[in-house]
Amino acid sequence: MANSEKQVAVIGAGVMGEALISALITYGISPSAITISEKRAERAAELAANYKVANAPLSENVAKCDLILLVVKPQDMANVLEEIKADIRTGCLIISFVAGKQIRYIADVIGTSANPVIRVMPNTPTLVGAGMSAISCCGLVTDEQRSFALGFLGAVGKVIEVAEDLQDAVTATSGSGPAYFFRFVEAMVDGAIALGLSKEDATTLTIQTIVGAAKLLDQSGDTPTTLREKVTSPNGTTFAALNSFNDSDISGVVAKAMKAARDRSQELA
Q: Is the whole model's pTM more than 0.85, yes or no?
């Protein structure tokens, strides 16, 4: 592409940062237009070798870029913003993947109202191209910038746009959601072992059942309710198991857990 291609700074090159680099390239951004800021020399060399991206000091990187992807830990956010605020170019788009940090917070720390900010809540399946992201845009974000964010995040999964005050609910649903799923898998494996199966067989049976059910849900076009009803014969084995779930108020348990996640997300803001 031409040298006029927009320059992208990726601040934070952990596993999510790497997934986003991959997404940018898949979307059509040239590796030569992407520069990471990563203090760990070994990690920087690994990403440079794998993706042909450059590595530069934080201030130098930000000073020449048109787009910043912030992929740092929440506790590091303030220090990073303080370090780069003097170098951020007017109009530079900032896309934040930092959990719990509001658009207003970013604007306050960098001390300017001249930079559009998009807040994103991604999740870990982004690493395998099956992510779920939700974006929220401030008033300065243009249609072109919004389309770009939706587009490149769509390269590694699905993406929706929500009002920022719903980001805590998104966190409780898709952000933390993969861990709920993993915990349920753990419980199923334990249950199968208690019924006499070996750990190896219990794990194989459970994971393939869960993966297959998810694929069926994704591809069949049926609702979860319809699919559940299709495999539940009156007074059959599935009926007995689901009655046990209902007796334990599974909907209440899940709703309570999700509310706890939402409330904690609000506390961390």
A: yes
